[in-house]
Amino acid sequence: MAEGPCADVDVVFARGTGEPGGVGTLGQMFIDELRPQLGGRTVTSYGVNYPADYDFLNAASGADDAEAHIQSVVAQCPSTKIVLGGYSQGAAVVDMLAGIPPLGNKVGGLQERVGDFGSTAPLAAELVPYVRAVAVFGNPSTKFSLPITGSVFGDRAIDLCKDGDPICSRGRNPFAHSDYMSTGMTTQAANFVAGLL
Predict the structure, then answer these.
(1) 3-class secondary structure, 31
(2) pLDDT of 105-157, one tens digit each?
(3) CATH number, span 9-196
(4) CB 67 within 8 A of CB 10
(5) How is 132-173 classified by DSSP, letter by letter?
(6) Residue 122 per-residue DSSP state
(7) Domain boundaries, the chain
(8) Could you list the active site residues?
(9) Beta pairing, strands 131-137 & 81-87
(10) pTM for this one?
(11) So what's the pLDDT on residue 103?
(12) How far apart are CA 63 and CA 71, in angstroms?
């Protein structure tokens, strides 16, 4: 966090696989759509620091990094409202914080390696109330009937899956997974989150 006054809202966003560093393209669009809805309140953002590469076991490091950041914000700025978000593999990072098993223990050869995720525990219980809203896009666990809305975040969460997206549904359109920015779903998520803040 930058020194100086605490922000009203801090958006902690985990980008998708292969997206540019920071919050990623989709995360930035979501933040840009949220900001004007907050009536002049100050908004900071934090891009979860993790590789976002094709080794999905690395998503666990993202969950650890996000938790460390949230803990730091809560310690320095307890009145800051935290928004948690993620896209694709970034949504799996958020799932881990919610205590939902990650994609890796359900898919292919990673099944035997599920123990590798064991070091990442859900977000510490005392930090959960500081997370005021959660928005995930293309969430892999949704395909296995484990949406973020069924977690500790409950009705503070929105779990968006584009029709046909094979990552978060039984769909078979691989192009659907990379098309969240043109669908209005970032606006839908920003509207939902703004309503909770």
Answers:
(1) helix
(2) 544 433 333 344 444 568 999 999 999 999 999 999 998 888 999 999 999 99
(3) 3.40.50.1820
(4) no
(5) EEEEEES-GGGGGT--GGGSTTGGGEEEE--TT-TTTSS---
(6) P
(7) 9-196
(8) 88, 165, 177
(9) parallel
(10) 0.90
(11) 56
(12) 12
